[in-house]
Write a structure and sequence with these properties.
The protein has 12 helices and 18 strands. It is globular and about 60 Å long. By secondary structure, it is an alpha/beta fold.
Length: 345
């Protein structure tokens, strides 16, 4: 089969790779219908050290079950399925608590002998706990929105849910990427009164307004902090969702959070340390939360509205390419020419 591998910073190739096969009785093999490029894929695209064997890529995909192991019970050949970005057994204590990203027996795509979703097919470990069967055909117009449930929609929802957004909450979202925009949508769904989106790309912030942003702040740093403070009578917002992962965004979050508020981080941190002392978090009683989203826990919550068409999170996909052209997708996202790229095998 054909699959995407990264061999170093900027070195993305589509190569011939072994076809996935059932290795364990709890496995499934899924033919990928759609995958995509994630903003987090740009971190290794910028910084990965050269490696002769390369690393498989992609952690978001939907597809058709082609084969199952003898112990698989919840999906069968021919099912259309959503694959969360972490695989999990669904039965351990962490999974039962809704924290599948810490599953005692699970893991993440592109680790060990488990490959990624920017490919023609994937072996899925622990299929019963991981995959969610959905009653749609592989040509359904809902596929882009269903694909967001494998990561970015669930991640945006996680950010808002962990911060306990509810009716009357004021929220600032830092970052106008797919996760930030879907955090806007999620905060609005959970009842946020005011949602301030901090972003500089008009096509993206326009989509943010469509998803429920009440205000847009294009400034960064001290100017951005001042603008948010002006919109909130000097107080800042109850919740700040940091969807970027760089230290300046975290520092900006500290600047706009209201005393007693919550900073929820879902941008993959590209730094080792950050302010947490008296002047930043302790003194004003700020809560710090977030982390890798256990999106499997949120699919059952978010799926009905997607199937009903009452929400369209798939609008974050603004470009579709063939697998063979996946490098163009990385370049387009890196150059801010595309918000999120859909990959068609």
């Amino acid at each position: 089969m054909r699959a995407t591998y990264m061999f170093g910073a900027g070195d993305v190739r589509v190569i011939d790779a072994p076809d996935p096969v059932i290795q364990h009785s709890t496995d499934a093999v899924v033919r990928v219908v759609r995958g995509c490029v994630c903003g987090s894929d740009l971190h290794p695209y910028h910084n990965m050290s050269a490696t002769p064997q390369g690393s498989s890529m992609g952690h978001e995909f939907v597809g058709i079950v082609e084969d199952v192991g003898s112990d698989v019970r919840t999906v069968r050949k021919g099912d259309f399925v959503i694959a969360p970005f972490a695989w999990s057994d669904g039965t351990c204590d962490f999974c039962r608590e809704g924290l599948q990203t810490s599953c005692r027996h699970g893991g993440f795509w592109n680790s060990g002998d488990v490959r990624g979703g920017q490919a023609e097919a994937v072996r899925v470990p622990l299929a019963d706990g991981t995959l969610v069967a959905v009653p749609v055909e592989e040509n359904s117009p809902l596929i882009p929105s269903l694909l967001t449930l494998s990561d970015v929609y669930g991640t945006g929802y996680h950010a808002a849910a962990k911060a306990r957004v509810t009716t009357g909450t004021t929220v600032t979202v830092i970052g106008d990427g797919a996760v930030g925009l879907l955090a806007v949508l999620s905060a609005k769904q959970l009842g946020a009164q005011q949602v301030i989106l901090m972003g500089r790309h008009k096509d993206r912030t326009d989509l943010g307004r469509e998803f429920g942003a009440t205000d847009v702040v294009s400034e960064r740093g001290a100017e951005g902090v001042a603008a948010v403070r002006e919109l909130t009578r000097g107080d800042g917002t109850h919740v700040v969702i940091e969807a970027v992962g760089h230290l300046p965004a975290y520092e900006q979050a500290i600047g706009v959070v209201r005393p007693g508020g919550t900073i929820s981080r879902v941008g993959v941190p590209q730094y080792e340390s950050a302010p947490v002392g008296f002047g930043s978090l302790f003194g004003p009683n700020i809560t710090l939360t977030g982390g890798p989203a256990p999106v499997r826990a949120y699919i059952d919550i978010l799926l009905p509205a997607v199937l009903a068409g009452s929400v369209e999170p798939g609008k974050v996909f603004d470009r579709e390419i063939a697998l063979a052209a996946v490098l163009d997708g990385y370049r387009a996202m890196d150059n801010r020419e595309a918000l999120k790229v859909l990959v068609r095998p």
